[in-house]
Amino acid sequence: MTVAIDRATGKVRGGRGPRHGLGQRLRHGYQKHWYAYVMIAPVIVVLGVLVLYPLVYGLYLTLTDANSLNTARTIGVNHIDATYKFIGLDNYKDILFGPLSYDRFWSHFIWTVAWTALCVALHYTIGLGLALLLNQKLRGRTLYRLLLIVPWAVPTFVTVFGWRIMLSDGGIINTFLHMLHLPQPSWLEDTFWQRFAAIMVNTWCGVPFMMVSLLGGLQSIDASLYEAAEMDGASAWQRFRYVTLPGLRSVSSTVVLLGIIWTFNQFAVIFLLFGANSAPDAQILVTWAYYLGFGQQPRDFAQSASYGILLLAILIVFTSFYRRWLNRNEQQLAI
Amino acid sequence: MSTTTVATSAAVTDDGPAQSPRRMRRRGERSLAASLTSHGILIAGSVIALFPIIWLVFLSLGPDKDDYLHPGGIWKKMTFDNYSFVLQHTSFFDWLKSSLIVSLGTTVLGVLVAATTGYAVSRMRFPGYRKFMWVLLVTQMFPVAVLMVPMYQILSDLGLIDSYLGLILVYCSTAVPYCAWLLKGYFDTIPFEIDEAGRVDGLSPFGTFARLILPLAKPGLAVAAFYSFITAFGEVAFATTFMLDDQKYTLAVGLQTFVSEHDAQRNLMAATAVLIAIPVSAFFYLVQKNLVTGLTAGGTKG
Fold this sequence. Notes:
Chain A is mainly alpha-helical. Chain A contains 14 helices and two strands, in the order H-E-E-H-H-H-H-H-H-H-H-H-H-H-H-H. Chain A has helices spanning 22-62, 90-97, 101-134, 141-148, 150-153, 156-167, 172-179, 191-219, 223-231, 236-247, 249-264, 268-274, 285-295, 301-328, and strands spanning 73-75, 78-80. By secondary structure, chain B is mainly α. The radius of gyration of chain B is 25 Å and the shape is globular.
């Protein structure tokens, strides 16, 4: 067999021979790589059926005016055929520039960006702070570590309900604020406080992952670097700035990207904290798209799918730029 | 050990270089104040991390649905009635069954389908490799909103709405690329010399994978399986929409039914939440160390 293991370095592929004709190259490539293609075939098939086909179908739906009143459905024994029609790019035009587009799209868009930025910033700084503390020689640090990852260990749908009870009127948080003679906001009704509460709960949920990943990164930094820096008279801040942060760079760029994607797509926290129908102003784009498609009557499938496609486009564009930016700074993404 | 030296840097941060210590401190030694500050912050952090859970456990012991308003009263009338009620008079076990069927189905399917792919992208460089990895990455960042509408239409055409199989298939759309990615990271840590030894002894590439690498990759497979399980178990959006029969709800959906517009049985909800949380978090703590390395180390050498 000619299938050689490339040792996965990716860089030893240079030194190609002269280029052959297309047919010959295809045949040669097939002979050389057919094992690889057979092995990735299962995933290709699954992705084709479960992701690509729905995606294309969804794209088609965004070009129609499909909703729950005109799609094919069966009521009792009667089957009603689909009557929705093709309307081109009207959905996108309506979402982005139509009447009330600020209230329906742009306000949610701005809130989603703010939500993502704030949550990831909080996750990262708190996670880094705790990781630095845990990386010291400290009595009981294993115990602290175990306690601090509790929010990650318990499923989100459980903890969010815990928070919902705590934040409700007359719940423990407002009782506590009352004891301190502080104002008691209505966390689950007032728009500003809804947003505040959502960010708070999501921060609580997301810090442990950041903390643990960054702790792993800190422990992999070579200790002799710190010794050398200390010998050169670097202050604590300088050691943090010029040894710790560069050492964390590859882990950081990965977890920040993951954090941004996860937070941007975070469905459970907002959906479970406020329910599908209350708090229209605190919905980020994902939950808002869900509301359009499944939370209201009649269900507006076409608009919901268009939101989905727009969201995906935003994420893909962002990730491409992020990767390009990393490449320009000569960093590798560790995913 | 790296910990000792890193400790110094963090410790001195607390002191500030301006304070000159009265006696010379050895490396890794901290002032009392710095230690106390560290402990103080960590204790505060732990309390914040733990409190919502403890509060949930505490409320689950109060017999009345409005007890959360007067938590002080719970001390006098603590009881396990909520638990026995949830176990005997609600569909808790039906929900548990659905959750387990769906999560285990996703796990088995995801890992089985993804295993060979993880190996192929770890060991072989084929034309289209980078594009394929990019596809795997992009599929992981699909917002739920992208696939939900078309999936709903397709599954209702096929009559798979409100069936376990439908939900398993939906979950596989994220679990499969994720497992492939995770497994690639694990296969990368297995030395290539093992493959070469197998090849020298006359195994085909597939034989090398099945007979040599797969047995070595058991921990990696376990992590991928566990991660698919946890994600499927905790998924809310698809389960809420695609499961209509309340006997087929997964736990994530069932828990929502305690709070409706008319009535909120918070005591029962708390008890159910605790019942779910205990086994899942116990399981989580068993594998958490592997999970973290698996999540971030995947594909560093890509």
